[in-house]
Amino acid sequence: xxxxxxxxxxxxxxxxxxxxxxxxxxxxxxxxxxxxxxxxxxxxxxxxxxxxxxxxxxxxxxxxxxxxxxxxxxxxxxxxxxxxxxxxxxxxxxxxxxxxxxxxxxxxxxxxxxxxxxxxxxxxxxxxxxxxxxxxxxxxxxxxxxxxxxxxxxxxxxxxxxxxxxxxxxxxxxxxxxxxxxxxxxxxxxxxxxxxxxxxxxxxxxxxxxxxxxxxxxxxxxxxxxxxxxxxxxxxxxxxxxxxxxxxxxxxxxxxxxxxxxxxxxxxxxxxxxxxxxxxxxxxxxxxxx
Length: 290
What we know:
The chain is of the alpha/beta class. It has helices at 18-29, 35-38, 44-49, 82-94, 114-127, 144-151, 169-172, 178-190, 207-219, 246-258, 276-288; strands at 33-34, 54-57, 61-62, 72-73, 98-103, 132-136, 157-159, 194-201, 224-229, 263-266. It has an eight-stranded mixed β-sheet, with helices on both faces. The protein has a two-stranded parallel sheet with strand order 3-4. Helix 4 crosses helix 5 and helix 5 (114-127) packs parallel to helix 6 (144-151). It is globular.
């Protein structure tokens, strides 16, 4: 089933502001990459115009082959030590208050890249303790020690996306495992982290399957849930099976709120890091009072 034109609710304004250009200049100056650009996120210009972005660390080539993702696949480049300092300098230069980090999967590294996450977070917290740091991590093979290392580095929010329903994993995330991802979030919660996860919809999932995933995430204590529309980023990526209308997103949000998530963000343009700063601000006091 091919779609040649987006429905009317998937029209996105392009923001070409001074801040948008300033962010791009600073990222280039410090040789930093964002998943916003690498994955062709439709929110990029809006987020850059608010000085928001999600930094992509540990190179720009992923060792896995998720079919929905536009990030390059292949043998990763070696990551470089200066990335730690470059990130901190860019954050300070731009006055960023909520830093979001993510990475390609690095199954080729003994620690899957966990120490590099931790090193950046520790350095950032040392230089600017007020900066909130959110990490959208790969599954690290669900190794408890690696997840503990990142959570205890000073992290404020641990995000790991479940992405889709279990039935579609072989097609969409052939190198990943649904239960491994659940375990990652369960371990992070065990070590006291505020946890977050998300799904992309429109890949052929059924409503009852989405509700099952939401129940699974709620049972292990995930705090924040994001639900967004899959948009095909390139010709070699999976085709969209369905454009989910805003009313259906509202339906999912009401169900998710009813089963106990502290915050649910659902909509056609929602991505896992979209409005991350606003979400954290909205629930931080609730989380800390538990």
